[in-house]
Design goal:
Elements lengths: L1 E2 L1 H7 L4 H17 L4 E2 L1 H13 L1 H4 L3 E5 L16 H10 L3 H8 L10 E6 L13 E11 L9 H5 L5 E4 L2 E4 L9 H5 L5 E12 L11 E2 L6 H18 L6 H8 L2 H4 L2
Parallel strand pairs: 1-2, 3-4, 4-5
Antiparallel strand pairs: 5-8, 6-7, 8-9
Helix pairs in contact: 1-3, 2-3, 5-9
Bound molecules: iron/sulfur cluster (3 copies).
């Protein structure tokens, strides 16, 4: 559906973590009114409803994605059905009822358990401030295919993580963010994919006491990622006190239970 400029401007001021949900509601409102375009009035009606009846809008979790699936050319790898599987997993946890029992006072959107998925290390969906952040990753490996010293990998790597030493490229793993760009740039397949999947970050949040997520070591397949997410939810639902965010739970309990597998 088309949006008027005023409506777009107004919705751009909605906090990013609920903007997608608000946009959907506004479009529903416009469609219900039989309008062919979303106007500022539709936005205002929805904003008022969100503010007056926020508790009804809380579903207990949020899954945010970057613009990778909408055509951004940067994704490291394509795992199109993972967001749906994560939604299913979170739905089965009854997080709304869980939070209603734990939180003192009315439920707010910031109490929801947030999973944020970015399709490359540019991290546009801000996985570093979500309870669980996933970053698609593709780690290179140096194969036995001869290197022609063309320099394409060095030029491509924005982290300065590759140098050419002697006959072969050398990767500084401390700098590499597993974006996979060098693999795509290498014409000789000297650089090949060693593993693709997700980097997993846990415990990020904003609010009064912001906390950046911590990264678990390694790259995980979609199946392993779902398993770790399940473990994180087990731990969160077992240990959460008074509506604590996952990062606060981890500060109190440590990460042993979620990485010990
Ligand atoms: S995180 Fe990467 S793939 Fe996703 S929108 Fe940003 S640049 Fe594109
Ligand atoms: S995967 Fe990305 S960050 Fe790592 S060496 Fe290749 S281009 Fe550089
Ligand atoms: S892109 Fe491939 S062939 Fe070219 S320098 Fe790098 S590893 Fe060697």
């Amino acid at each position: 559906m088309e949006w008027s400029k005023e409506a777009e401007k107004a919705v751009s001021k909605v906090p990013f973590f609920v903007r997608k949900r608000v946009r959907k509601r506004v479009e529903e409102e416009a469609a219900l009114a039989g309008a062919g375009e979303v106007t500022l009035d539709h936005v205002k009606i929805c904003q008022q409803r969100f503010l007056n009846r926020m508790e009804e809008e809380v579903k207990g979790f949020q899954v945010e994605t970057c613009f990778g699936p909408s055509g951004c050319p940067n994704p490291a790898v394509a795992h199109d059905d993972l967001p749906r599987k994560i939604e299913d997993l979170l739905s089965r946890r009854n997080l709304r009822s869980f939070l209603a029992e734990k939180v003192t006072g009315p439920l707010k959107l910031h109490h929801e358990f947030r999973v944020s998925i970015s399709d490359c290390p540019n991290a546009c969906s801000r996985p570093q401030i979500a309870d669980i952040g996933l970053i698609e990753a593709r780690r290179p490996n140096i194969s036995e295919e001869p290197c022609t010293q063309c320099g394409a990998c060095v030029e491509t790597c924005r982290e300065g993580a590759i140098i050419l030493a002697g006959k072969w490229p050398v990767v500084d793993w401390g700098k590499c963010v597993s974006c996979g760009q060098c693999i795509a740039a290498c014409p000789t397949r000297t650089l090949q994919e060693e593993k693709s999947g997700f980097r997993i970050q846990v415990g990020g949040k904003l609010g009064r006491h912001p906390r950046l997520a911590e990264e678990l070591p390694g790259i995980y397949s979609p199946e392993e990622t779902l398993e770790i997410l399940g473990r994180c939810l087990d731990h969160y639902q077992k240990q959460c006190r008074h509506g604590e965010r996952f990062g606060e739970v981890l500060d109190r309990t440590g990460k042993k239970e979620i990485i010990n597998f």
